[in-house]
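Rotation project, supervised by the postdoc (A.L.). Task for the rotation student: set up a whole-complex structure prediction and record inputs and outputs verbatim in this book. Inputs entered:
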Amino acid sequence: MNEFALIKRYFVTPNAQGAGAGRLPHVALGPGDDCALTQSTPQMVQAISADMLVAGQHFFEDTDPEQLGHKALAVNLSDLAAMGATPRSFTLALALPTLDEPWVAAFSKGLLTLASAHNCALIGGDITRGPLTIAITVIGEVPLTQALRRDGAQVGDDLYVSGTLGDAALALRWALQDPKTATVQTSTTVQTRQTVESRMTMPTPRVALGQALRGVATAAMDISDGLAGDLHHLLAASQCGAEVTIDTLPVSPTVATLPVDLRRALAFAGGDDYELLFAAPPQQAARLTHLAAQVGVKITRIGHITDDTALVLRDANGVVIANDYRGFDHFSE
Amino acid sequence: MNEFALIKRYFVTPNAQGAGAGRLPHVALGPGDDCALTQSTPQMVQAISADMLVAGQHFFEDTDPEQLGHKALAVNLSDLAAMGATPRSFTLALALPTLDEPWVAAFSKGLLTLASAHNCALIGGDITRGPLTIAITVIGEVPLTQALRRDGAQVGDDLYVSGTLGDAALALRWALQDPKTATVQTSTTVQTRQTVESRMTMPTPRVALGQALRGVATAAMDISDGLAGDLHHLLAASQCGAEVTIDTLPVSPTVATLPVDLRRALAFAGGDDYELLFAAPPQQAARLTHLAAQVGVKITRIGHITDDTALVLRDANGVVIANDYRGFDHFSE
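Outputs recorded:
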């Protein structure tokens, strides 16, 4: 099977065809030409993000391909969610060491199942030979004035995160056989272990929550490199500071059983969470509770925005603790 | 320097900022947030294409980084040209084995010089560690009914190509020290050699020609994998055949000096040309001549569309010759 046949079999879906049943109406021309053609929605702007995943860097070479297909799109949809945007379409560029058809079939299944769940059409791309690398660009839509930017946080706003933090980082430590987490790994049930692991392998982008936050949150971003580093970016963009009560960071029951230092490190600086971090005025608290319930995602207030430029961490007793956590940087590890 | 500082220094340009002098008005929010935000033009659809270049596959690992930056964007702009679209914005995902700052500076210069010449804003992306890989997604705009698709060629249409074919393939053979091309390589002047080599290293996307062909050409595509293979795709999409006089394929003076078999192979099946292949009714001939002169690009009639489904090749005397040429496929080499 050659490159063109492979694309046709595994990556051309009815929802991206320019005609026929199941097509998404915004796709005027699907894959197969020099470009795809998509229609934009009046009163909306395009929200666009690109991410690259490299084997050995962002995932293990032997990662289950179906999970990998899911995750590759999920991390990009998470960027749309963080902007409050509705997913519309995406491109995929894929480098493969060999043409392993079962691998491609499984990857495509994981990728397109998630895409289909979000009505996000795979409109084009490229498959080539090379070290296993996945590059995706997603395109969504949002009303310009309601887009959730990083730079809108106001002094006095509450800070929230969605879901729980630290599970993906715990799963990574398990995979790397970190002795500090071995006890928890062996003492939990298979089901619990799988739940934690799925946070690393099959993250859920908070797409519905992001859209629900339009016009409510003053600033938002997704937590991909760890809250410590990502919050720093939000504060820098908004030119303000924050106080965060580190022991209020929401964690799963498994992470909650860990020693306090490890729990804090995983929740605050773990990375790969793909939860949303956002700021909103205190008077929106009740509305936020309602919206979160509507979309079925837990949100937790973790602190508030200050007129300082520093980030102050407090423990459960309100005592200031040292902030020696940092985010992930691809060239500093 | 970390990932974020690197992006800020080398990849954030005034034309992609959401505010300030030099910004492109369609960029509502530039790089630095979870997504960029772009405005679409009324009556236009988005033309979107993605390509990935892998070191050792698409270019030599030691390729001059400034030329590589140019070429990585050029091959994507060529896809917009082939659709008749106006470039608007692009994303870049870059995997680098090490953070070699002079390399990044030169790459960025080649990339952004070409981007700026086409008012195409770098609106986002990703830099990560990994085997040298470049993935670009370009977004342009075109009126839906005037987009140059592959599937519109009509029986009786003339077939044209722009520029000359085969130079990039000749330069590649020189680089690979193919003995068949060595004589030409050593007998030409340095200037001529550089002219040929620049077709491989610094291809010119036919953006203005593509836009000029809106509403005139019935079908178009760019020639990236070699005319033999690419023409096959156009004919398959348009469900028709063609007759091509192989000896009318436009070639540079250097390619013209080669033995006939080699000249034909390079021009018809060489690849990496990034010229446009297009079909248009014979009554558009005078208009095409005028448009080509306006945009300063030579076009050559190479044959015509037939109601067959086969591609018939003829020599200069009209004698049918065997078509044993084929296009490039990443997994068949």
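Student's summary: The radius of gyration of chain B is 20 Å.
Supervisor addendum: Residues 3-145 of chain B form a domain with the 60s Ribosomal Protein L30; Chain: A; fold (CATH 3.30.1330.10).
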